[in-house]
Amino acid sequence: GKMTGEHVLDQGRPYHVYLTYYQSPAKFWVQVADNVGKLEELQEEIANYQTQSTKEPHIARGRVVWARYKEGGDGCFYRARVDSVQSGGQCKVYFIDYGNTDILSNADIRELPSRFCAMPGQAIECSLSAATSLTEDFNKLIESEGLHLVELATSPTAFQASPKRGGGGGDYSGDYNSSQGTSLYAPLQFNLANYMDVCICHVEKNGSFHCQLIDQAQNLKDLMYDIQNAYDNDSAYVTQPKPNLPCVVQDVDDGIFYRAKILSTSGTSVAVKYVDFGSEAVVPISCLRQILDEHIILPALSIECTLNGAERLNVGAVVNLLKQYESSIPVVLKVLVKTAGHYEVELTDTNGMDDYNLTDLLKSDNVSLPKQSQRFKTTSIKLLVRNPDVRINDEEKVFVSAVFNDRSFFGQLCKYDVSVLEQMTDDLAYLYNRDPGQNVDPSIGGICCTKFSEDSKFYRSRIIDMKGPMAKVFFIDYGNQEWKKFNELYELMVEHYSLPQQGIKCELKDTYSRQITEQLLDQLLMDKEIVVKLESRHGDTFTVTLPECADNDDVAPKINSFLQPRQPQQQQKGVAMVKLR
């Protein structure tokens, strides 16, 4: 057979991927997660068809065939490409959907019908930039599943990856020394004349400001989620604070952990800068934690900038105008001058009927915000609902309150006092039925309070999708989802942020079976208490297994009997995100 197309990724678009085969940081393969279901359907069709096919093909270099995968006792046939024909009736093949290679007997090769060649090979070869210096550290990250996101750049033979969560096309440029834990966060690097959609997250008194890339909002939320789960009061403290030392800080106001670097020390207090938000704070030394390797290797997600021509303008006017945009209105940023760790930029408000250059606004008599600009929340996430207190490798007892599909469900953590959640629900009903307050400015990932249609009660929710005047909300303490009108979404009162999310999204670990349906999983799990083991996490979803124990006697044997590992992957370390530039 011959492939009818190539796997093409759009530049600038983020991709969720599975790591399918790993040799080294300089060479590993991934699959785009969105295509995995289609590939499994194709593989099932191939498995049904191959029993009817015994025709051996003409074996030639470059030919696409069926090849038997022998490693691990699989013995099934998969799509492969003949890379070389060798003596002794053997050939070297490359499994085009997984990245593996093998030397097989010609007897293990079958002709592939052309209808199975329509889907391009799904294995995408990647290499890590600076692989030589980071080999040992990258191996540890892969083994521990600490590296969740990578950013890719094209090269002649593969995609080149940087060890980070993405950055709108920026390159990783920092030094990394995991043994000493003293490396600085890498700054994002942008080329002159780059245009980016940003949100101003912090304005300094001198008129400089920090901004965040809007297309990295979800990455920032994922990072914050990771950090809340990775640190607590038992985490290692910073015992010898010194300027420029990277750390994690528990904010004294909201109790949330943030990545930071130390600016200065004075007695028992430390001045720190929150590197993903740009703001500064003075905190007790007891609020500092030693930062983990997987969090120091990611670049700082806020960018320090100065408005072009600001030195010739009134500083107070510059600050006042920028603060009108702070954490509320997105703007388009263009890089004009680039120096070490700093950018002189042009900002344009494109939210109204006309575009407004902010420097031009400052030069005019009217320096107030144009009336047609539409305010809405973007990347600033100072207020967060605390994440559940769970860790990878923990076993947690949960009450299954929602089933999403044939492998995913929501479990309320039984260790939490249900009476506290019930009391909060009663409080929300009392307060919001009297006066629901202001509607939220909807944005994906935003927290709100809204009614659940089945019981007309108010619950804490997160916006997970938007279409037209509608938003899809996820009820974070129960797992239900439904579409709501924008005018049905209300701001969550500050006092209701403090209670941790009461449950977790779960996905059965790296398994697939046509025998399990959503209806069957619902029958087996819904409204039952079970024990799950948290194996890994991608985004806000935990990959779980069901251990054999007394609490699982009714469900685990039935479900586990259906589940089969994906093949022929040698490694599948959770979900990553790949971003082309």
Automatic annotation (TrEMBL):
PANTHER family: FI02030P-RELATED, TUDOR DOMAIN CONTAINING PROTEIN. This is Tudor domain protein 3. Coiled coil: none annotated. It comes from Platynereis dumerilii (Dumeril's clam worm). It comes from the Eukaryota. SMART domains: TUDOR. Residues 58-119, 240-298, 441-499 form the Tudor domain. The gene is tudor3.
